[in-house]
Amino acid sequence: MADKAARRPATVVDNFVPLCDALQAVKNQLTKKWQRTWDEQNQNKLHDIQPMVKPLKNCALNRKQSVVLNRLRIGHTRLTHKFLLLSEPPPTCTRCQCILSVKHILVHCPISTFIDGIVLVATFV
After folding, report:
1. pLDDT tens across 62-78, in order?
2. Across-strand partners of 99?
3. Which of 23, 73, 100, 116 is the most buried (most CB within 10 A)?
């Protein structure tokens, strides 16, 4: 009996996990679940803007710059959304007759350049 007791501590596995490691594991699992839920959204235009559920990088921007950047990211500007408040039809691009959007101005308009888009959108943000 004493021999068994003497051998037992050598065979017991120490399953101690530090609290910080356990919390990090829980955080990682929750983030993975959140990411799966985010990826399963069928019609989520914000997924195109930020496909990962991690926080955005914190740039040294003042409040006004941060607001302008975020409004451009989500595509909400006075130029592209004023029609909703005024119950008017959506504005169209004068150059190619497409419905006007921030993405169209900055990316898709065949005639616009990047600089033109920045100036145009910044004027109406």
Report:
1. 888 888 888 888 888 88
2. 92
3. 100
C-alpha 6: how far from its chain's center? 58
| Main-chain phi, psi angles of 65, to 5 degrees | -65, -40
Q: What is the pTM of this model?
A: 0.56
Q: In this structure, are residues 68 and 84 in contact, taking their beta carbons and an 8 Å threshold? A: no
Residues in the chain: 125
Q: How far from 71 is each of 17, 51, 60, 80, 118, CA to CA, in Å?
A: 44, 17, 17, 11, 13
Domain boundaries, the chain: 20-58, 60-124
At 1, list the tokens: 């009996």
